[in-house]
Each structure stands twice: as C-alpha cells, then as structure tokens.
Specification:
Blueprint: H1 4-16, E1 21-26, E2 35-40, H2 43-56, H3 74-78, H4 92-119, H5 128-149, H6 155-169, H7 173-185, H8 187-216
Antiparallel strand pairs: 1-2
Pfam families: CRCB
Protein name: Fluoride-specific ion channel FluC
GO biological process, one term: cellular detoxification of fluoride
Length: about 220
C-alpha cells in the first residue's frame, strides 16, 4: 500500500462489506517500512470484494491464499498443535522502553494514591485510588490493544505503553493486599471494594474494546 490513508480506505470498505477481519500492518522497522492490509473471511466474500479492492488500490500488489482453519484444544496448542504467537523480542531497547514506561506509570499511580489518601481520611477501608488506577488502566490497555494489535502494530509502543506505563500504573498485588487488610477493618466495605474493582475493570476493558473498534471502523 502507498500510505496509511490507503490502508484506512481499504479497511473501511472491507468493514462496510461485512468482512470479518481487516487489519493493517507495518513492515520491518529497519529500512523501508512497507504497509500492507490483511483481509480474512470466507472465500466467496473475499472473491466478491476483490474487484472493489483493485479499484481502491490499483497500484498495490494483491495476493490471495486459502487456508483451512482447525480448532485445537489448549493441550494441543501447548504441544505445538497450532502456530504460537510471536514472542516479544528481548533486547536492550525493549527492556529500556519497559523500564522507562514503568517509571512514569508507577510514579503516576503513587501520585494518584497520595492524593486519594490526602482527601480521604479512611482510605485504608476503601482505597479508591487503586480502584481508579486499575479501572482507567483497564480501559486504556483495551484501547491500545485494539489499536496496536488490530491496526498498525508497533513493538516499541506496545513495550512502552502496555507493558511499561499501564503495566506499572495498574496493580494486582496491591489490590489483593488491600482487600486482605480492609477485611480486618470492615468486611462489608472490603467486599464492596473487591467486587466493584472487578466489575468496573471488566466493564472499562469491554467499553474500551467496543468504543475503539467502532471508532477505527
């Protein structure tokens, strides 16, 4: 494809046709970064979409392949019965990006909790600062997950924002510790804190996924 705008135009047309999956990718970051669109659906729908695809991107190369997908059990998957996702590259740059993002994310959560403690005398009973951090983090992890994994994939952005910043801004260990400590002070409020955190976190993630997919389409 010639540009990201061309990819966007093709993806919108594919979604309007009801294509199940249309995702844009950028090529290797070293050298010239090629941009291409992968369209996945049943063969008849793909064949009917090809003329419009050629009209929208007349200069783009088009390659069509047919594959049979098989459902595999989790045990078969772990034994290599399906293609495994490509792991993150563990190099110095990625480690540095996670470290830098984690420093900003952790600092943000510390400031948020400090402010919550300042305005709430009985913060230990219902630590809403952690709740806000986890709910907000769940929403933005879902948003970035859609943007990065279903659109233009960038390993650098994934490392910094998802694994680094949001991974440090949110916290599961502190959440569990606060439930245990709050139970000793007020079982009712501790149960309310645990339930509301789980419900709001899941709701925020679902909202982030649905809203982002609706926006990008």
């Amino acid at each position: 494809m010639g540009s990201e705008a061309d990819c966007e135009r093709v993806i919108r047309a594919a979604h309007e046709r009801g294509v199940a999956s249309a995702m844009a990718y950028s090529g290797p970051e070293d050298g010239v970064a090629a941009i291409f669109v992968m369209i996945i659906d049943e063969p008849p729908l793909i064949e009917s979409f090809l003329p419009e695809l050629k009209r929208l991107a007349p200069e783009a190369g088009i390659s069509v392949s047919f594959e049979r997908l098989a459902h595999v059990s989790p045990s078969d998957f772990l034994r290599g019965g399906a293609h495994r996702p490509r792991p993150f590259r563990t190099n110095l740059e990625n480690v540095g990006l996670v470290f830098l993002g984690g420093a900003f994310g952790g600092s943000g959560r510390v400031l948020l909790e400090a402010g919550a403690r300042y305005v709430t005398p009985a913060y230990e009973v219902f630590p809403w600062g952690t709740l806000v951090a986890n709910v907000v983090g769940s929403f933005f992890i879902a948003v970035l997950g859609v943007l990065l994994l279903e659109r233009f994939i960038s390993e650098r952005e994934r490392m910094f924002w998802i694994l680094g910043f949001l991974g440090s801004f949110t916290t599961f260990s502190a959440f569990i510790f606060q439930i245990d400590r709050g139970w000793e002070l007020s079982p009712t409020l501790s149960a309310l804190y645990a339930g509301s955190s789980m419900f709001l976190g899941l709701a925020a993630a679902l909202l982030g996924i649905l809203a982002t997919r609706r926006f990008v389409r």
